[in-house]
Amino acid sequence: MTVQVHPTAIIEEGVEIGPGTAVWDNVHIRRSTRIGEQCIIGEKTYIAYGVDIGNRVKINAFVYICNAVTIEDGVMISAGTIFTNDRFPRATTPDLKRLRPSEPDEHTLPTLVREGATIGAGCTIGNDLVIGRFAMIGMGSLVTRSVPDFHLAIGHPAISVGFVCRCGRVLSRLEGDDPAQAAEVACASCGLKYAIRGTEVTEQGM
Length: 206
Fold this sequence. Notes:
Layout lengths: L3 E2 L4 E2 L4 E2 L4 E2 L4 E2 L4 E2 L4 E2 L4 E2 L4 E2 L4 E2 L4 E2 L3 E3 L4 E2 L4 E2 L27 E3 L4 E2 L4 E2 L3 E3 L4 E2 L4 E2 L7 E5 L2 E7 L5 E4 L6 E7 L6 E6 L1 E5 L2
Parallel strand pairs: 1-4, 2-5, 3-6, 4-7, 5-8, 6-9, 7-10, 8-11, 9-12, 10-13, 12-15, 13-16, 14-17, 15-18, 16-19, 17-20, 19-21
Antiparallel strand pairs: 21-22, 22-23, 24-25, 25-26
């Protein structure tokens, strides 16, 4: 499998791209970033330096991925998603005399997107947090804290409203702020089984 790179894409030195990956028009990938096998990088997406992206990741158009972001295998990042890495950003020093450098420093905080997760269109992702395995973030959400494995999170700020299967279908919904009761559930779509204890979801038979 060969790498497909559109002629308008900018790929800086030191970027690693795995076989079978397609990079579409006007994408900009900065130095020292690693992208795995069989990924799709949608048009006009920007990926900063030092980003680590796994295998079979789909990144739609107009996505901004900043430094200190790690994306594991099988993640879906929908169009218009923005990642952030600084809690207290300023353009200049306090006296307004000098621009602050753009290189990572002690204020640069990481974000980890675990395998199989989906981030819906138009989301903003905060920093110093983890989006769990096969979690799903609803479109237009603002993520300010970690989202556990298999949780469905939506809103401003995003909160967990239910649980989802590996296939993406909703398994059950949370009622208000109360943790879910202990239950054994099977996905109505694909049949995969899970145990739900409070807010923890465990796969059965995997």
